Automatic annotation (TrEMBL):
It comes from Nocardioides silvaticus. SMART domains: UDG, UreE_C. GO terms for biological process: DNA repair. InterPro entries: UDG_Type-4/5 (IPR051536), Ura-DNA_glyco_family4 (IPR005273), Uracil-DNA_glycosylase-like (IPR005122), Uracil-DNA_glycosylase-like_sf (IPR036895). Belongs to the uracil-DNA glycosylase (UDG) superfamily. Type 4 (UDGa) family. SUPFAM superfamilies: Uracil-DNA glycosylase-like (SSF52141). GO terms for molecular function: 4 iron, 4 sulfur cluster binding; deaminated base DNA N-glycosylase activity; metal ion binding. Pfam families: UDG. Keywords: 4Fe-4S, DNA damage, DNA repair, Hydrolase, Iron, Iron-sulfur, Metal-binding. This is Type-4 uracil-DNA glycosylase. Residues 43-208 form the Uracil-DNA glycosylase-like domain.
Amino acid sequence: MPARTYDGAGPWVPDDPTLPALREAVQACEGCDLFREATQGVMGEGSTRAPLVLLGEQPGDQEDRAGEPFVGPAGKLLDRALADAGIDPDRVFRTNVVKHFRWSGTRGKQRIHKSPTRGHVEACRPWLEAELALVRPDGVVVLGGTAGKAVFGSSFRVGEARGRTTDWPDSFPLARPPRWVLPTTHPSAVLRTDDRDAAYDELVADLAVAAELL
């Protein structure tokens, strides 16, 4: 029997959606193979009138179980960094470029994160486009390499781009693009580094740049 082919999330995205409609519709999505092993699809969380979108990679183990983004250790660190940068959490919409959790194996009861492929990112792009069209943020903070490549393309490197605002790229067309986009590291990378305090301070400094623009 030939392997199944996947054509992306487009057919599952409702026309003129609300956020509740997107959350319901993503549960039926079979736009790529990740739906097979994930508990559920995880759409963004926050006000659809938020001026700032935080864009990460994909839901993790805890997010996949809870059905909400950024509720695990990286999310808690991000909450603290937002507070230290002076950003009101009520002015933030949090989401990921990929809506299903990709994992490989377990460590105890926890499933081990595995980065999504470029194909997974492309398949999920219609969901992200729908969220950005709904929220219409002033700015987007891109968290980490996977999200950065989703927005800017395969040549993106976090270390080269972080902390500096730029225009939303023409290669990711939107009817109403954000006024600016700012890359920084993903909070999970802060948790993995040896010098966690320094990495955290750098994340807060990057977020403070965004705070000044809100």
